Each structure stands twice: as C-alpha cells, then as structure tokens.
From TrEMBL:
SUPFAM superfamilies from the UniProt entry: P-loop containing nucleoside triphosphate hydrolases, Ribosomal protein S5 domain 2-like
Binding site for ATP: G97, E98, P99, G100, I101, G102, K103, S104
HAMAP family, per database record: RadA_bact
Residue ranges annotated for the RecA family profile domain, each copy included: 68-214
Highest taxon of the lineage: Bacteria
Stated name of the protein: DNA repair protein RadA
NCBIfam families: sms
Keywords: ATP-binding, DNA damage, DNA repair, DNA-binding, Hydrolase, Metal-binding, Nucleotide-binding, Stress response, Zinc, Zinc-finger
Length: 451
C-alpha cells in the first residue's frame, strides 16, 4: 500500500505548513494547525462530456465582443438585485450565514420557484425532511430534483444522468471527494471539493449555488481562500429571535456589492419585504421618551430605523453599557462626547441601546439618532415621532455630513416625516422638498431645538 501523505493545515486561514506549529505563521492564530491526510492521485473521472477546449487568444479590449449576457432569473426580486440582475451561467455563488438563519430555506425556495431544472443536493437533511419544508414554502417547480449525497463523484454521476441547468449544494462543509482522504469539513476537503465544483461550473456553464457555514468569528468556516475562489459571496444575516433577514453581497464579480435584500421569516418560509422602512418603525399611540428615528442607508437602499435608548441611574457601582445592533465602542464614544461637550452627567448611568427589528447598522448616519435617543431618555422627554435624524457625530461633538443625503431626505419625506435633522455642511437646499430640513453643527445645538 502506498504511504499515506499528510500535510498540516491552518483551520483558520487555510495555509498549508510542512510541520506542526503551535501558532500559524500566516494568520498568527494559536492552536489552529491540524494534520490532514492528503492522498492526491491522478483525477479526471468526474468530467462531463465537453468539447475539447481551444487555446485562448489574447485580444485588444476594443475587439472583445460582448455577448448578450443571459442571466437566469432567480425569481426573487431581492435576490436578483443582490446578484446584480440574476444568476450568471457558469458562476459559483457562495451563501454564508449562521446556523438556523434560513440559508437552506432561501435556497430551497429559489430552487422551487425557478423555471429551470434544478438539482438540490443536500448533505444535511433527508429527502423527506426537504419535502416537508417544500410543502411549507408552497412553490412547486416540477423540475426541482432533490438528492441526498455528500460524495462529489456520486453527485457528478447524478448530474450526468439528470443534466440539471442549476446546481444547489447544501452545504460545502458536508461534501467530500475521493481524492482527498481527510474528513468532510476539513480544509483540504473544502478546497478540493470547491475546485471540482468550480471546474464543473466553468466547463459546463451551469451555475452552482453553494451554502457555507459561518464560524464563530463570523466569517465563512473554512479557508478564506474559499471566498477568493468563488465569483459571488452572499451573506445572510439577522437575529434569529427576530423575523427580519438581510441578504448582502460581500463580493460580486458581476455587479455591485451595494445592493441588499430584505426578507421576513414567516411560518410559510421567507417573504420579501418591499417597504422595509414602514415595518422597522414601531407604531405608537403616544410619544415615548428614549426613541429616535434615523434615516440610514443600507447598501443602496434608504431605510428608516428606530433607535431606542434607556438611561437610568446605575444600581451597582460600575454602570452598565449594552448595545444591540450598534457598535458598543461607538456608543461609549458618543456618551463621552455628550459628557464632555454637552455637559450631560452620564458617567454614573446605565445606558442600554437597541436598534429595533434585530438588524445591525454600520452606517455612521445613525449616530445622531443615537445621541437623540440617549438624551431623550436621560431628560425623560419625548421627541416627536415625525422627526428624523441623519448625521455622523465626531469626537469634538461636531455634526458631520454623510453621503447621499438627498436620498435619505426623499425617503423621510415619502414616509411623511415633518422634519429631518442633518449636518450644517450638507449641500442641500430647502426649496426642492416638502419636509423641513434642520441644519445643525454641534450636539449642543440639539438640546435647544428638541428639549
Ligand atoms: P434553515 O433554512 O434550516 O437555516 P440554515 O439552513 O441557515 O441553518 O432555517 C431554519 C429556521 O427557519 C428554523 O429555525 C425554522 C425557520 N423556518 C420558519 O420559520 N418557517 C419556515 O417555513 C421554514 C422552512 C423555516
Ligand atoms: Mg441548512
């Protein structure tokens, strides 16, 4: 018997090392290097019949003909937008997300609603389980085939028989190929099976949608290399205890990464949310203190989001600060700014902050709404529900302009807000809008205007 060959792989970054080490020399993570069996032999038998490939000739840019790109319609408008207009033939799309967030549901719904022959390969659920789920989501593509299999060679055999137009793999971590001996989910298996899928996609023009698990740091489990290899990396995020889910493109070779899709998880599967702003703002009968509405942008999309804060005297010695959906470090910075620049004594107060809907916001334009929510709770005075806020707050307490302010103003106006507070340095004039634009330059200005 041939000697088994092994190599050492970092489970974090995927680097191959000659010997075992305590710390990976590439990514500097500790205890991530694991010995894996690699027994690479000649491999060729997965091939699907394709015409012999011609050598490529270098062309001048002006001589390259643009073939009218046909994209497969993913049916879901939200998904089509995120992909930049549909699924490109021969592309390989990776969908990452935390366990239970709805990756399998989304892929199954897409597979079931498409007008093409789809092969859905699951290594995680049985055919019966998938059938039960399919009945809940209630779309029926007669040409959607379900296969429970984890061996890539057997998957390619099934593909040869069925000739699907689109392939879905749930999930890459369950696949294994005969040519690598380590267990499924190991770095060498992930690398190898992805390479096989990419070859298959490119040579047959079949798009492959692959689900990938996410590790505790939030990146797709397995080597970062995986993200470099595929054409599109999508991320499905949200809070499992809430119903809203956001689909983002982290990388897209065929379109922008600015678009994002919003879904709601219902008993009957995922539904697209067409008017997210209206849903994310909770309806109230009376004005309550501690809430403020931010006009944010998620990708290209304007989104009105409600920020809630609770400021109370600390019961224990050290005040607590907690934040959901907003960066805690940034909240601490905002509190320091309010203390130093606006004279609010918040040092001995507990501060809790929450972005409603269970989504997390990175847009700096939410800063001003955070300030207003904190001050409103601290003063116990409400801010009218029809005021919106959109500005970044700097360390000196200055109110800074943010990008695409016109788009935010338009959204606020559309939803019936009466006033929007922005930075003095934004170049927009009052003339074109019905909403009153209030320009401020320092956090201190807010106090006089609101409380
Ligand atoms: P799933 O797609 O299995 O998640 P992932 O593949 O990302 O691990 O989704 C699982 C969750 O979705 C589960 O907690 C139940 C919920 N769900 C619904 O609420 N409604 C539905 O119709 C379906 C199919 C799932
Ligand atoms: Mg799943």
């Amino acid at each position: 018997m041939a000697k088994t060959k092994t190599a050492y792989f970092c489970q974090n970054c995927g680097t191959q090392h000659a010997k075992w080490m305590g710390q990976c020399s590439t990514c500097k993570e500790w205890n991530t290097i694991v010995e894996e069996v690699i027994a690479k032999e000649e491999k060729a038998d997965w091939k699907i019949d394709t015409a012999p490939r011609k050598a490529n000739i270098a062309l001048k840019v002006k001589d390259i003909e643009i073939q009218n790109e046909v994209r497969y319609n993913a049916v879901s408008t939200e998904l089509n937008n995120v992909l930049g207009g549909g699924i490109v033939p021969g592309s390989i799309i990776l969908l990452g997300g935390e366990p239970g967030i709805g990756k399998s549901t989304l892929m199954l719904q897409v597979a079931l609603s498409m007008k093409h022959k789809v092969l859905y390969v699951s290594g995680e659920e049985s055919q019966t389980q998938i059938k039960l789920r399919a009945e809940r989501v209630q779309n029926l593509n007669e040409d959607c085939l379900i296969l429970t299999e984890t061996n890539t060679q057997k998957i390619f055999k099934a593909i040869q028989i069925e000739q699907p137009e689109i392939l879905v793999i749930d999930s890459i971590q369950t696949l294994h190929t005969d040519y690598v001996e380590s267990s499924a989910g190991s770095i060498s298996q992930i690398k190898e099976t992805t390479t096989e899928l990419i070859k298959f996609a490119k040579e047959t023009g079949t798009p492959v949608l692959v689900i990938g698990h996410i590790n505790k740091e939030g990146s797709i489990a397995g080597p970062k290399i995986l993200e470099h290899m595929v054409d599109v990396v999508l991320q499905f995020e949200g809070d499992r205890n809430h119903t809203y889910r956001i689909l983002r493109a982290l990388k897209n070779r065929f379109g922008s990464t600015q678009e994002l899709g919003i879904f709601e998880m219902r008993a009957g599967g995922l539904r697209e949310v067409k008017n997210p702003s209206e849903i994310l703002i909770s309806k109230k009968d009376e004005d309550l203190s501690g809430t403020a509405i931010a006009a944010t942008l998620e990708g290209m999309r304007p989104l009105m989001i409600e920020v809630q804060a609770l400021v109370s005297t600390a019961v224990y010695g050290t005040p607590q600060r907690s934040s959901t959906g907003y960066n805690l470090k940034r909240l601490n910075m905002i509190l320091a700014v309010l203390e130093k620049r606006a004279g609010f004594r918040l040092g001995a107060k507990d501060v809790f902050l929450n972005i409603t809907g269970g989504i997390s916001v990175d847009d700096p334009a939410i800063d001003l709404a955070v300030v207003v929510a904190v001050l409103s709770s601290n003063e116990d005075e409400s801010v009218p529900q029809n005021y919106a806020f959109a500005a970044e707050v700097g360390l000196a307490g200055e109110i800074r302009p943010i990008n695409r302010v016109e788009q935010r103003i338009t959204e606020a106006e559309k939803l019936g807000f009466e006033k929007i507070f922005i930075s003095k340095f934004c170049k927009v004039s009052q003339k074109e809008t019905n909403i009153e634009i209030v320009k401020i330059s320092k956090v201190e200005d807010l106090v006089g205007l609101l409380f």
